[in-house]
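Annex B. Sample input.
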Amino acid sequence: MALSRLGNTRRSENFTWPGFVDALASLLMVIIFVLMVFVLIQANLVYRVSGQDATLGEMRQQLASLSELLNIERRASADLAADLAQLQIQLDSSETERGALTEQLALVKAALGTRNRELTALTTKQAETEAALNAARDALDERLRALQMVEGQLALTEARNRTQQQKMQDLEAQTTASKAEVTQMTLVLAGLRQRIEELSALLAE
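Annex B, continued. Sample output.
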């Protein structure tokens, strides 16, 4: 009986030990699996953190580049604003000079119009004077022809008709007066021509 119990106890111990080993092996496998999962997760986290650090570095470099570009753009904008202000000042100055030149041009045009009117008046007066001079010359020619006719007649009838001599003297007096008038008109015409030449010279300037 005692031997049978001892044999049963040994059989029980023999059956318990392999189960315990199997449980330990399973537990070890679970622990190894958990460690592998933990290592994989840790490696993934390290990779992600490293990638994020690299991305942050690149973003910082890009931010620095953008900041530098922004500073360059600001300086360029300031330079452009200064140039624009200078151009505006030059434009205002040009507008002022243009206004002054426009006023001077208006004055010159007004003076030119006045001189043109004076020249037109003098030209008209010259034409009238020349017409009067031509009429006086025609009258003088006519009187000279009449005088010549009278002189011819007087040459034939001088001895007989003193009255004709008196007429001849009267005609000579009229001729002298006409010559004086023609001379006076000639002087006036010369003065007008000189005045026209002076005005033309002023206009040419």
